[in-house]
Amino acid sequence: MSASLFDYASLFSDLADEGFSAWAEDLKIRCQQAISVTGHGNLEDWKAAWSELPAGGAVLSVNDGRVTASREGNVPSPEQLTATLMKLHPWRKGPFELFGVHIDTEWHSDWKWARLQDHIDLRDRSVLDVGSGNGYYGWRMLLQGARRVVGLDPFLLYAMQHEAIKRCIGSDLPNFVLPLGDDCLPPRLNAFDVTFSMGVLYHRTSPIDHLQSLAGTLRNDGELVLETLVVDSSEETVLVPHGRYGKMRNVWFIPSVPMLKLWLKRTGFRDVKVIDVSPTTTNEQRSTEWMTFESLENFLDPADHSKTIEGYPGPLRATIIARL
To answer: What CA–CA distance (Å, rounded) separates 44 from 18?
Structure first.
């Protein structure tokens, strides 16, 4: 059972034992800075919510796509548990089910996982998940046999949500979410068997730099799972929005699949396989009682959901697996 909040000691120790002691020490310092009380005004409230959750003794499973924690007896009422978890609103990635409470998140992340799970072998693999959010995919990776998952996400709330889930599961299962961005990754790290980057590439001002950074995380013959927005074209082309895309300011480059494959090959990847191309619908991303802000429906043209509100092609996502 995890003894304390943001307990990364076992991860840092394991990394040091594997020959990455300098990186482990750098991560330790960066994490301490990221979780400082003075750095975020809501942290004390989130800590209080975390402390109200039942600690330990749960069984981890997946049920209808929901990462589930269950156990017999000695749990808060559904009303009490819901009120506590709502203090960590908004919940974007999931779904989860904690002791009978269904956290109906903004994203049906289980649908994205279903598209790729049969195409990747994670048994006994060390996995990096860049832009991990609250660690939903990390639990699915562990349940699919991963030896360890290291998630990176700079939004402290998402790391806090992960800590809440981990407290309920109450184990030392090696799924970590560090409150850091991928700028903590040194070049030529060569530490992981599989690296995931899902929903990150289009937020980067330099997609080539991002792909090179991902390549540097992998051991020889390592695998990259890349999921990103694409445009529907058989040509090697890329969309650069004039301003916002789907109300998002930080969307820079949306390539076609042929262009994305070219980028991957230019950055050293081989055996590039497109395993899925799917439009994102308002059934997959939507507002719920667990995420009450605007969602995809508000980002699309109300008269034509095939377009964003700015008139660009609506969100189309490709999932690609490549080998280094």
So the answer is: 34
